[in-house]
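[job 4471] stage=fold_predict status=RUNNING
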Amino acid sequence: MDQRFKPDLYESFRILVIGRANAGKTTLLKRVCNTTEDPCIYDDNGNLVSPLLNCQRGVHDINRAFSFRSNPRFIFHDSAGVEAGDESQLKEVQDFIAERSKSTRINDQLHAIWFCLKPDTSRPLLEFEKNFFNKERAGKIPVIAIIMMFDDLITQIYDEDFDDAKNRHEAEKEVQDKFINPLHGYSYPPKACTFMEDLHDDNSNHQNQVKDLIEKTAESLDDIALKMLFISIQQNNLELCIKYALK
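[job 4471] inference complete, writing structure tokens
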């Protein structure tokens, strides 16, 4: 197959975002697209929905695509907040992935999945999360696991007898033992994992975290043309664009 980059063929990059409610998914996407604006929501036919529509209801309809004016070539879909043991929700996600995989138009296909995990010492992995990574998915779409709100986990396990570095180390060990290691023990594990913290803080190193997410997503893509599209439309990191252009 001819895998040269064809801009007329590859117009947008479509990502499904999955995760628990209040995991910071919208904040993450705003950081990826470098914006503070709310997303533009589209109906099933690709028409812009009236701004008067309830924004959160629109975004959490998995079939409704949305994007940000700052970078409209990133197309997102968001599942409703994951709940424990909700088989109907898992089926909805699986059906959506399968349906997108059948599309003959490249731009309508799903290109990557970002699975946002919210670390909670009392509820490590939910049944939905376990089943998602243990059941075969259509299309062999790469999944990147994103450990969200890592700063919140540090607060949860904070021990005043330890210094900040030791507390951070303990939080990292908690994530490794209760999230990353179990995920890689399932039949269909994520291609890569990354961490996010303090995304709400404009003074944090959120752009370095976004860079890591972008790079790991790019590395997970087997199609060279799709990889180049993904790198070209992300606008936050010139260094990354140059790196892949030289490869």
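[job 4471] summary: Confidence is low (pLDDT under 50) at residues 1-8, 52-58.
[job 4471] exit 0
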